[in-house]
Specification:
Layout lengths: L1 H22 L25 E2 L6 E6 L4 E7 L3 E10 L7 E8 L5 E2 L1 E3 L3 E4 L5 E8 L16 E10 L9 E12 L18 E7 L5 E6 L16 H23 L13
Parallel strand pairs: 1-3
Antiparallel strand pairs: 2-11, 3-10, 4-9, 4-11, 5-6, 5-8, 5-10, 7-9, 12-13
């Protein structure tokens, strides 16, 4: 019975350890408030505006422009990009599209979501969404799997009528992620993010020249994960303890009460 009590206590401790790991599977809560959120968008990959997950960015632009933002995504996250375009009062039917690229400029497919939508002539806005695949900690060189690093969002109109070119529009974009936990763990990890990203540095250097493009400093709120730990370890431990308990219980049920008293020892 002592062994059973010890194993039961181990199960309880492992269950308590698994509680925060299970909580990690809920959608991540980004910074609250949009007071210091970006109000501009880049016009290329090199000038993409950096945004943090969970914070809404806005931009005023002209219809026909390419609008770019960038954000960090770490292993185990499943990013969701949502974009809203505010259209002018008078316009023809317009088709808008949001695309997501990884740090190597590879276009990433959307699992689901309205990535392309057409707004009717009387529509005041159009909403787009793209749910990416879960970011993996490691992948084969030939694969197009999303890996930890910087991701780029491009928002633009497709086949815009000539009458609407240059019309003023407003864009809003927000990126959030759901932590997929141990279900997304793989046997391997990257020692560094795939691509740290490129950003435009403001100001001038010591010689008075514009510093231009530099490596991005933006990263996930809790930093880049090492990739080796996941809640899969906890559930594997719980499974081992339960298997041990099943073995002890089976032995206790099948071993019987011992040798009957009427049977001599030498029999």
């Amino acid at each position: 019975m002592r062994a059973v009590r010890a194993l039961s206590a181990a199960v309880l401790l492992l269950g308590l350890a698994a509680t925060p790991a299970a909580a990690d599977s809920s959608p991540s809560a980004g910074p609250s408030g949009d007071g210091d959120a970006p109000t501009t968008a880049g016009t290329s990959f090199r000038t993409a505006t950096e945004i943090e997950q969970g914070r809404r960015a806005t931009a005023n632009a002209a219809a026909g422009d390419y609008l770019y933002w960038s954000f960090p995504a770490d292993a185990g996250q499943r990013p969701t990009v949502r974009a809203t375009v505010r259209l002018p009062e008078t316009h023809a039917a317009q088709t808008w599209q949001v695309d997501v690229y990884d740090g190597l400029r590879r276009r990433q497919a959307c699992q689901w979501g309205a990535q392309t939508r057409t707004a009717a002539a009387d529509a005041s806005s159009v909403e787009l969404a793209c749910v990416l695949r879960t970011v993996r900690a490691w992948s084969e060189p030939w694969a197009n799997d999303p890996l930890p690093g910087t991701y780029y969002v491009r928002l633009t109109a497709l086949d815009l009528p000539t009458s609407d070119l240059g019309a003023r529009v407003g864009a809003e974009i927000e990126v959030g992620s759901k932590d997929m936990g141990g279900a997304a763990a793989v046997d391997g990890s990257l020692s560094e993010p795939l691509v740290p990203g490129v950003a435009m540095a403001s100001g001038a250097d010591e010689d008075g020249e514009d510093r231009g493009a530099v490596l991005s400093a933006i990263e996930p709120e809790d930093g880049w994960s090492s990739g080796w730990w996941s809640d899969r370890w906890v559930w594997t431990g719980i499974g081992g303890v339960l298997a041990a308990l099943a073995g002890v219980g089976g032995y206790a049920l099948t071993r019987g009460s011992g040798r009957p008293s009427r049977v001599p020892p030498g029999a």
